[in-house]
Amino acid sequence: MISYLDLMVILSLCAILSFISYRLHLLTASGSVASFLMGVIIGSFGSVSWLIILIAFALSGFIVTKFKFELKRRKGVQEGAKGERNWKNVVANGLVPALVALGAWSLGLQESAAANLIYLTAVSVAASDTIASELGVLSNKTFLITSMKRVAVGTDGGVSAYGTAWALIGAIFASILGWMLLFPWGTVDARLLIPIAMGFLGCNIDSLIGATLERRGIVSKLGTNLLSMVFGALGSLLILSLL
After folding, report:
1. For position 80, what pLDDT does the model report?
2. pLDDT per residue over 68-97, tens digit each?
3. What pTM was computed for the model?
4. Domain-wise residue ranges, the chain
5. Which of 53, 78, 115, 157 could crosslink 104 through cysteines, CB 3.0-4.6 Å?
């Protein structure tokens, strides 16, 4: 059961960060509200450490979004008018981690290694996809993942060697950072490969869905993000069940 002190810390932290993000034009008003709600759910039903991991992911996302923003604007591939993200962006990256938090709480498994790894995998997918998307559009050599034919930068399902490299870096970054916060120091083992591998694979699944279902109008960008994160979370659960 979460303590009143922890709840106050979570509420205050989420409120302050959402307000600052709005004032800095990192989030729209709807994005700030969604960010607050997602943060409170994850911090309250998961753990404060889970919330910190989500905040670290959000900060890294803001940084890569602003990186060479004017070049992205000239290419017409920027996020929002000034790089701000709305509630759909927040839900796309926060809903699956929030559902993992609720699921772990309902089963009394918030502190378990399995729950930590499944949550970390979901965030790893989001980090890998966000970093790859924001930095991959800086490359002019983009190929459709299903056919490897050249396509315009920003095309749904488009990938590049540059973006793919950053996808792997994003998964590694999120997984190592999360591991340091969730597991005792000096206890790195082979399980760290689960969020790294599934985070990177989930990012590529996102591109695959984008090139097929999204391009045909069957799912939206929000749906694409959610499906890829569900894939990563369920994939990690399957691997853990087999170990």
Report:
1. 64
2. 878 888 877 777 666 678 899 899 899 999
3. 0.91
4. 4-242
5. 115
